[in-house]
């Protein structure tokens, strides 16, 4: 049993952390889009946002474990971690679609052009023939259309696939950040009714 600090509800903490993470992602996106949009189609941007995401995930996992009393089992860690991950992803996923449809309709077209241009130069540098490059770019363009201007069905499927990926990430982080209480009698001495 996790020894929560008095008044700490891990479900609320997970929702709060997911909301904060989602807002941070939106701020990074908006700064990048309006200050240096050309960086958004680069590998550097992808790596940088991934590193920021991992750093935030580590911070939120450690914060929640501390608020859980410093110890939590794998199963106790998995729920709050997954909720945090899923909410942050959902906020950014919905924002991306809404941004391209209602706020700045040039976003999907510009991003597609940047990604296709970078993909084409990468394929040429790898020595692909013009025919193979054209086929690969056609496939990439279809994929980008689904990503930046999805139909309702495509958006649901895309969200479901992302949710599965984030669940796998939550499993990994729960394995990494679980921590057993070294006191073998902690469950007996401190057992309190839980709301689960």
TrEMBL record:
One Pfam family, short name: DUF4199
InterPro entries attached to this UniProt entry: DUF4199 (IPR025250)
Record has Transmembrane helix as a keyword: yes
Keywords assigned: Membrane, Transmembrane, Transmembrane helix
Keyword Transport: no
Spans traversing the lipid bilayer: 18-36, 42-62, 74-99, 152-177
Protein name: DUF4199 domain-containing protein
Organism: Pedobacter montanisoli
